[in-house]
Amino acid sequence: MNAEHSTASQEKTLDALLGFEWVEVTPDRVRVEWDVDTRHLQPFGIVHGGVHCAAHETAASVAAQAWLGERGIVVGVNNSTDFLRQARPGDRLTTIAAPIHRGRASQLWRLETTNADGKLVAQGQVRLAHLDGAVPPEFLQFVRDRQG
């Protein structure tokens, strides 16, 4: 595990465009931090629910792939996210992925996004299916770089 803050390896990925910082990446837990700014907002000045969904699915996908390793690839098949508290520009949010179930054909991950006070902002679950396929070498390096 490497607690050093880093951004995604490719500048044009969704997580990089949204400013997600990969703080912890292991097969058992992923932690992403991000600062809310205007790119995350819906018209009423609070974080758009789709950004929370993206944070959750991204964290779960990286965690699930880190666990599966080179035995195939993972793809999201369901994302259920509840929005519990508003977040506004300047807020620092942390999204944590933890496994609920990891099986032969699929995985289920629990996600929690909290604010700097530790209050729950969004929570949910993401289910991912395992497919045959080669894992991109860049992803394997991304995980290795963050595991220490």
Short description:
With 148 residues, this protein is of the alpha+beta class.
Short key terms for the protein model shown above:
disordered N terminus, 7 strands, seven-stranded antiparallel β-sheet, PAAI_dom, alpha+beta, 148 residues, Thiol Ester Dehydrase, Chain A, 1,4-dihydroxy-2-naphthoyl-CoA thioesterase activity, 3 helices, 38% strand
Widest sheet: strand ordering: 1-2-3-5-6-7-4
Question: CATH top level?
Answer: Alpha Beta
Q: Would you identify the CATH architecture?
A: Roll
Level of helix content? Answer: 10-25%
Total number of beta strands: 7
Number of helices: 3
| Count of discrete domains | 1
Percent of residues in β-strands: 35-45%
Mean pLDDT value = 91
SSE string, helices as H and strands as E: EHEEHEEEEH
CATH superfamily: Hotdog Thioesterase
Biggest beta sheet attributes:
7 strands, antiparallel
Q: How far apart, in Å, are the first and last alpha carbons?
A: 5 Å
pLDDT < 50 runs, ≥5 residues: 1-9
- CATH fold title: Thiol Ester Dehydrase, Chain A
The whole-angstrom Rg is 15 Å
**Which structural class best describes the helix and strand composition?**
alpha+beta
Rough outline: globular
Keywords: Hydrolase
Pfam family, one: 4HBT
GO cellular component, one term: cytosol
GO molecular function: 1,4-dihydroxy-2-naphthoyl-CoA thioesterase activity
